[in-house]
Automatic annotation (TrEMBL):
Molecular functions per Gene Ontology: acyltransferase activity, transferring groups other than amino-acyl groups
InterPro entries: Acyl_CoA_acyltransferase (IPR016181), GCN5-like_dom (IPR013653), GNAT_dom (IPR000182)
A UniProt-annotated Pfam family: FR47
Top-rank taxon, per record: Bacteria
Coiled-coil portions: none
Protein name: Acetyltransferase, GNAT family
UniProt-listed PROSITE patterns: GNAT
Domain N-acetyltransferase as annotated: residue spans: 1-137
């Protein structure tokens, strides 16, 4: 598995991981209408822009397919002023979860934040998301 900075040409792969991950992770948490309204095309357009403006890293398998991604930067919420950085998103295709790849995807975000003299980070996770335990470690 390879972790690297995302390029605009990765937007479609990132979008696919996001949509597929949302549908498998949030199927009983988020309204079905919302999940079915998410499309690869719509998300890819948004990622093309975000990749140029934010920290986005991808995980590739041996075939070069994107199987996960992370996204982070300065904290967007002022509710928790003690945290200057934020992990905006961390998604892996279900079959690639629980093998250390999530941690590997967070590391470059932390490194980038540290270069900006940011040493604290928060993440918002839905209470019903079983993956929340990953962040509680």
């Amino acid at each position: 598995m390879k972790i690297r900075r995302a390029a605009v040409t990765d937007a479609e792969g990132v979008a696919k991981v996001q949509v597929d991950s949302w549908r498998s992770t949030y199927e009983r948490i988020v309204p079905e209408e919302y999940l079915t309204s998410m499309t690869y095309e719509n998300r890819a357009q948004k990622w093309k822009e975000m990749i140029t403006k934010q920290m986005v890293y991808v995980a590739e398998n041996c075939e070069g397919d994107i199987i996960g991604f992370s996204n982070g930067g300065q904290a967007r919420s002022r509710t928790y002023p003690e945290y200057e950085g934020e992990l905006y998103a961390l998604y892996l295709l279900k079959k690639h979860q629980r093998n250390g790849l999530g941690k590997r995807l967070i590391e470059p975000i932390i490194h980038e934040l540290n270069k900006m003299n940011i040493y604290s980070m928060l993440v918002f996770v839905l209470a019903d998301n079983d993956s929340r335990f990953f962040y509680e470690k």
